[in-house]
Amino acid sequence: MYPKVKTALARAWRDLQTVQFGVTPAHAVVLGPVDTATASLLELIDGTRGMELLRARGKVIGLPDGRVDEVVRRLASAGLLDDATVGGPRVQAVRSRPQTLARLGPDLGSLSLVHPEPGGDARAVAARRGIRVQVRGSGRVGGVIASVLAGAGIGRVEVLDGGRAEPADVAPGGLGPGGVGRLRAEAARAAVRAAAPGRGPRAAESGGAEPGLALVVVAPRDGLQAWAPDPQTSADWIATGTPHLYAGVLEGTGLVGPLVLPGATACAGCMERDRVDGDPAWPRMLVQWRAVHRRRAGGACDLGLSTAVAGLAAAHALSFLDGGLPASTATRWEAALPALHWHPTAVLPHPECPCGAGGDGESAAVPPARGSGSGTRSGP
């Protein structure tokens, strides 16, 4: 073991015997009492020394027997300790790629906060390499989402779209100007490859099998299909239990969510039935709107808003893929120009929808997202 105090949390002394790791309340940890000799030990726990050497240095600085091991245990239980020696072959394969690690350094720091066990950040990155995600849409929202997911280490990001890229599809972080005129799917693949921090996993790393879809992100260039999704489009995802997340911009309004967990949270069919219950004219208007959007060349999709939507949607997708339940689970987040106040709307299962999420008319029980608490934590 070569323990290392995590560097993702800035360190500051509250007083002579109490040290706080972290500035913001969500992940901050207070550790105390810490005497002068223990403070000196903290400086030595930097990943360059094994336990035997740390124990020897502990004696030199006046620590009693067992104190070094006690401090290391306290740091580990407080989520403040890392160890570059832990992890299996998949983790070590990630660590053997210095250029990839350099690109993913900030991601590793962030992951070390939400996966506080030693080596949790490297395990999360290794797990991302084996994940397959599909993005439906390559416009200002979908193209950026796909590039962000690939850049964050998702091993396989597929982009589905039709036609050829147009100047209006170009967005920083998404499709570049060089993609205009190319098939959208082809241009999107090139953007994903350019964003990825390294080559994806080879077939041998996944046993030669095609990984199943972990998530579908529905981010159509036609924002209407994210605002009012067609239940027929999502029927296969519901049948196969494939989670899917909606995101888009429609008429100056951005939306992220809901994240649909088939059988547990409301689906597109639930949303459609709920709207019909509230407005009997909805089906008639929806048919007209869809016809208009098919004929219309472009829409109102402000670049700043579309970038914000893509970034938030990608962050929610990564949170889910890393094992959490983001705030978009069973919830749609909306923000409209010019004020851009984000506000949530719960999306509840409909009792008559055959998806099975709301047979009793009540929202299915969804566990809270990991790390949703706030406030400064105290170390043991």
Could you walk me through the main structural features you see in this protein, from its secondary elements to its overall organization?
This protein is 38% helix and 16% strand. The chain has 380 residues and is α/β, with parallel strands linked by helices. The protein folds into two domains: 3-85, Outer Surface Protein A, domain 3, CATH 3.90.930; 130-346, Rossmann fold (3-Layer(aba) Sandwich). Helix 6 crosses helix 7 (120-129). It is elongated.
Classify the fold: give the CATH topology of the largest domain: Rossmann fold
Overall tally of domains: 2
CATH class of the largest domain: Alpha Beta
CATH architecture of the largest domain: 3-Layer(aba) Sandwich
CATH superfamily of the largest domain: NAD(P)-binding Rossmann-like Domain
Overall pLDDT level: 89
- Large-scale geometry: elongated
Termini separation: 21 Å
Low-confidence runs (pLDDT<50, min 5 residues)? 367-380
Using only C-alpha atoms, the radius of gyration works out to: 24 Å
Task: Report the β-strand fraction as a percent range.
Answer: 15-25%
